[in-house]
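Predict structure. Chain length: 126.
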Amino acid sequence: MKEIIEIIKSKVLARNWSFSQISNLKTTIEELAQETYSELSLIERYSIVRDTRVNDMFVGMIIEDVFREIVMTTLRGEIAEIIRNLLENATVNFGGNMNEVSERSVGGESHEERPTDEKKSSKNKK
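Prediction complete.
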């Protein structure tokens, strides 16, 4: 299980998180769980299920569905715990926004190559 936790942790740390992903953790956790589940081998999935006690909730379900549900529930829990632990020590940096408007475009200095009193070219006249 430690290997699976390391896989999850590396996935969480490798992402550049947006505010919407952090604020909607349920969806983010589900996406990470689905992604992790699809990458796990059958042996890794079995290692998660192996020590789980079956309860009445699974009566009447197909074993494949029970297997998947147990693995997904475990993955969701692990992912939520890892994200919670990482967020406790996280810092937020609002700088470096790629969508910033340049100073010139909001009334700053004019462009040096083309002065504002430049005369129109005779080519543009009709």
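Summary: Confidence is low (pLDDT under 50) at residues 102-109.
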